[in-house]
Amino acid sequence: MKKTLFDKVWDAHVVDSVQDGPQVLYIDKHLIHEVTSPQAFKELEERGIPVFRPDQIVATADHNTPTVDQHLPVKDELSRNQLAQLSENCKKNNITLYELGHKYNGIVHVMAPELGITQPGMTMVCGDSHTSTHGAFGTIAFGIGTSQVAQVFASQCLLLTKPKSLRVTVNGTLKKGVLPKDVILYIISKLGTNSGTGYFCEYAGDVFENMSMEGRMTVCNMSIEMGARGGMIAPDNTTFEYIKGREFAPQGEEFDKKVAYWKTLPTDEGAVFDKEYEFDAEDIEPMVTFGTNPGMGIKITESIPTEEDASFKKSLQYMDFEAGDSMVNKPINYVFIGSCTNSRIEDFRVAANYVKGKQKAPNVTAWLVPGSKQVEAQIISEGLKDVFENAGFQLRQPGCSACLAMNDDKIPQGEYCVSTSNRNFEGRQGQGSRTILASPLMAAATAVAGKIVDITKEVEPLELAN
Amino acid sequence: MEKFTTLTSQAIPLNIANVDTDQIIPARFLKATDKQGFGDNVFRDWRFNKDGSPNESFVMNNSIYSGSIMVAGDNFGCGSSREHAAWALVGYGFKVIVSSFFADIFKGNALNNGLLPVQVSEAFLSDLFTAIESNPNTELEVNLETQTISVKGSDLQESFDIDPYKKTCMINGYDDIDYLLSKKTEIEAFEAQKIY
Ligand code: SF4
Questions:
Q1: 3-class secondary structure per residue, chain B
Q2: Distance from residue A283's CA to the centre of ligand 1 (Å)
Q3: A38 touching B, CB under 8 A?
Q4: pLDDT of A346-378, one tens digit each?
């Protein structure tokens, strides 16, 4: 039978099936962080169950960590306590932890791929919905709840019903200034926030084939925002080249053997998906969101649509926007370039290219938060730090930061933030904050102008970006 | 986990679509290291004004409504995978959430915590809202054995789907860990002969 990429990886991991019920799926790698693991450790302890395969777990501290003065004790008592618990739990259970300040520390979905932990054909889970990011490698990766974290601790397995399959194909050539973030925001704006529920999504077509691994990660990252459990892209030479030589990647002959296996994973020609969508690359433009879910996005050249629906109106009211408004020229006081969607080196290169020789608008607070210590080091070694600081941007230390505002990086009540993160929910970036999702290029341009700009009108920066 | 067979209760109508888990429990309350206490902060920013006073216009603060069932708009529980959302709803006292659609992860989290997600048709959901909003004393009956939900004193009834395995777990009060631990031998055998 012809199989999809997803089928091949899933089927290779089925240990057993419950009659008329779910399957027992084996998990290769389990990533954990401070926020969704403590209750799982506690549950195991209370039930007297040991952690089954500590070697297959990697921990990092990212969600509530400060992004300044990381060498000092964490000020917030609750956060400090949560971090201390993580350290203690990892120590007790022999789990590798890249804690605050460690050279491998970072947002869980940035640091694992960067270290070569994420590999094609694997199953990976984490108590965080954006685990879908790792699907960029042809990995089945998805977010789980804390009860499931405990299940994986106890058995290295999960009980799951196999999701249905969905394929989104985008062919053609992207226009100048259209980044991977725009591609996924466009797809979600077309399909809505629950079109993917119950499905695992494969992205196919030349747009994704021609994308860097960083770009593929940005796309797969937001699969969850259309409701899908995860997204995947077939592994190819770009994938193998990216993994080669990384800290925990297979080496030498072992690597070649793996590559031979990875090459068997792409979807067979003629395999059938439960649902398919197709888009033209030429239709995609730089995108911005105007509402309070990631599906409420428009091309920068369009205006906010009119809908009669009560939730839609509530959303516009929260944002204080009117149907028919253009997003161009809306004044903005905060810009955040960061989060597991767009905090990799490529994202900062795009932003720096645009910012070079310009000045941030005086009204704007612009935060740059690298996804990991390694990205931070790269920003410095490539000289991007100077570019940003000369332009008045603030380079902070790695972490989730204003993506979910669990630490001090909060957008104040009523303020607008153009953000490269993945969620524009009410209050996501701080109580009463208003989030506009966009690409790092759009974010950088907003910071310079102090308002949203129509980037398609700027020829020169676009050339730099692509 | 608590067992669940049937429940008869009034319901709270939250007629809003796309309720995400950030609203159910805002991120700033996620710093706890145990499961207790989240109920106090369920829908925190909708239930309370900035100054800490109750927001009278929010349905959960409207004393004409009560009960351990929440009837909510389409696509309930979308967004973040935080299980804290399920703990918060359970902690507040909800045992059933009714909606025309649930986000995947939320649904799994709810079932793992003895909170029953009942998915009904859009038409039925709209009938439920009408019934409850026109008479807040309306009682709903949820029967897991027969997989039905009905409005007491009317002929409004619909059946709902649930994974048979999950149904057995809910009825008996056991969870996935118990099951997985019973599969240790198979898991070890699988590890020994992995094909990839
Ligand atoms: S950056 Fe944001 S979305 Fe990504 S893991 Fe952190 S909190 Fe979650």
A1: CCCCCEEEEEEEEECCCCCEHHHHCCHHHCCCCCCCCHHHHCCHHHHECCCCCECCCCHHHCCCCCCCEEEECCCECECCCCCHHHHHHHHHCCCEEEECCECHHHHHHHHCCCCEEEECCHHHHHHHHHHHHHCCCCEEEEECCCCEEEECCCCCEEECCCCHHHHHHHHHCCCHHHHHHCCHHHHHHHHHCCCC
A2: 29
A3: yes
A4: 999 999 999 999 999 999 999 999 999 999 999
